Amino acid sequence: MNKTLEEQRRQLPAYAVRQNILNCIQTSSTLILIGETGSGKSTQIPQFILESGMLNKGMVGITQPRRVAAITLSKRVSQEKMRQLGDVVGYAVRFENCTSENTKIKYMTEGILLREALNDRFLKKYQYIILDEAHERTVNTDVLFGIVKSIQKERSMFRMQELKIIIMSATMDVDHFSKYFNNCTVLYMPGRMHQVQVMHSKHRQDDYMFATLVTLFEIHRTAPLHHDVLVFLTGKDEIESMTSQIRNITRSHDLAGQPPLRAWPLHSALPAQRQLEAFQRSGENYRRVVVATNIAETSITLPGIKYVIDTGVVKTRKFDPITGLDSLKVTKISQAQAWQRTGRAGRESDGICYRTYTANEYDLFEKMTKPEILRCNLSSTILQLLALGINIETFDFMDKPPRDSIEVAFKQLKQLGAIKSVQNPQLTETGHRMSKFPIDPIYSKIIISSPKFECVNDILDLVAILSTENVYCEPNQNNRDQATAQHSKFQTRYGDHLTLLNIFTEYKKHNKSKQWCTEHFLNQKSLQYAFEVRQQLAEICDNVNVSSQADSPHHNVDQIRKCLITGLFNNVAELQQRDNHYIVMANRQRAMIHPSSVLSGYHANLNGFSSSSNGNGIISNMGNKLKDAHNQKANYVLFSEIVHTTQVYLRTATRIEPEWIQEVVPDCGYASRINNNQL
DNA sequence: GAGCACTGC
């Protein structure tokens, strides 16, 4: 058993260049290592360092963009070393630290290393830091680039132990990377394990859904039984439409002599159980086709895939600093992404990738995916950098974010009271406390304000549940009404925030029961995650003196909503009676309330519980006296998110009273405008 | 009438 593990190790491409790699690591302080999936770089390089005796003090730290990867890699490597997980080889991710004094190789998420840097300015624990999957260019990867580079320099300046940096990546813009790391050595490792043949469409396709269907049934007609197919589409709607079309075609056409074709959807909104169904083959005599979003590009690896159909599109989120608007739009993938998708056909054996776009179109794709740091809201990242004592103006970004993004982030941090001024972005006392929370500054501000509103516990519940997505379970077609009925039990006319708070409160009251979740069509995994976030936030509260001692013994819905305004004051919108649209007060942006919101008007059937706010129980609808007034659309709402999809939508919205703005944030810039318009 | 994917000692 162990012998085979060792044999497997020796067969990896990384093993063949072992000595070469070690020589390079020894002679250079920074090394870029390029190797494709299957080369064994993530599991082998840390072991090579350990076995070579080059590790004399400290650890090898190796970062991953995703939790699951950090955990599975450390499991694999501890097996290969024949040691218990958490001994010589361990991992650390949010909520879980599986390391010990003996740990020499530590796998972790990028976020963990960033948080560690906050408490250990020079990351003294580490002699080697390996940043893996660097080509993905997540915000955290980019921030870590700058941080480890500067720590390396400082450690050498102060004559501390040298920090060795290894950047590992699949394909990437080598020149750009090497230049940034002072023209360091670049080492290429032998290619992937299996061949994938790429077939481009001969002609331009107007309808990639149709092209996908044609390609799929051609594969189905000709390929051997167990050759499964993976299709990349952009979102839930497309995936549902595709799987139902596949079912209809297989049902209505005579596919005599062919094995059945079964389609499985795969996207993040599905509960864990249904994601597993797509992963596992449940029988022998059919062909499986998995229709997925880009979740199957990196996060989930499906076994048995021989064919990939790549539509060349993806849904991406982009932040516009001028309008403050997030947009979620279908865009063309990059060439690097196309190859990532192609590789999914060659995980276990040779495969084929069909691209429903022409070779010409491919040539016009961007070479690399734009780094996330260039297209996201930076307030959280900048608060963290400031807490590290970093000057943003001089920070050595590999790709510097746009001026507007940085300015908008400073402005927001100033408004939240986290920095002294935009010109002098020094952290205030509040800013220091805010930076301790691993959440968006808007919400850390709300938590810090909560003792004043005597609702610390409710706010912690609320922030915890807001940090998870997909609280509601996707019902099937046949139990949609049932799910709606169950969900409506939690709804209140106050809006979505207090509805979510109800769900979380009830979840805890029912001892986090799995069965209770199933009965109420709620996602147990998400609620459990929220529970753990809640615990973590409460611990941090203790450390930064946010005390719940003064908390009101009952839910005080007005105080909770006022407290939310202390962070979300820029997210307040006013109803335009004229056309039933909302206008965001801070920037005059026109928007609609998202149809999924309790306040959208599509949820007329708000049952609630019978009495009004009853002790620590569920927050129900308002008393009958007020009820009629509140059946109308809310005149003022506060929202968590504004996203441009098919329209500009406010998501997760709560009804507020206009006079609260003057009371809570008199300096917000639009308070007077509200008062003048009132009554 | 409708949400890509990640992450945080």
UniProtKB/TrEMBL annotation:
Tree of life domain: Eukaryota
Keyword list, A-Z: ATP-binding, Helicase, Hydrolase, Nucleotide-binding
SMART domains membership: DEXDc, HA2, HELICc
Gene Ontology biological process: positive regulation of transcription by RNA polymerase I
Catalytic activities: ATP + H2O = ADP + phosphate + H(+)
Record domain Helicase ATP-binding: where: 22-190
Keyword flag Hydrolase: yes
Enzyme class per UniProt: hydrolase
Domain Helicase C-terminal span(s) in chain numbering: 212-389
GO molecular function: ATP binding; double-stranded RNA binding; hydrolase activity; RNA helicase activity
EC numbers: 3.6.4.13
Coiled coil location: none
Alphabetical list of Pfam families matching this protein: DEAD (PF00270), HA2_C (PF21010), Helicase_C (PF00271), OB_NTP_bind (PF07717), WHD_HA2 (PF04408)
Keyword NAD part of the UniProt annotation: no
Gene Ontology cellular component terms for the protein in this record: nucleolus
Protein name, as recorded: RNA helicase
Source species of the chain: Clunio marinus
Lineage: Eukaryota, Metazoa, Ecdysozoa, Arthropoda, Hexapoda
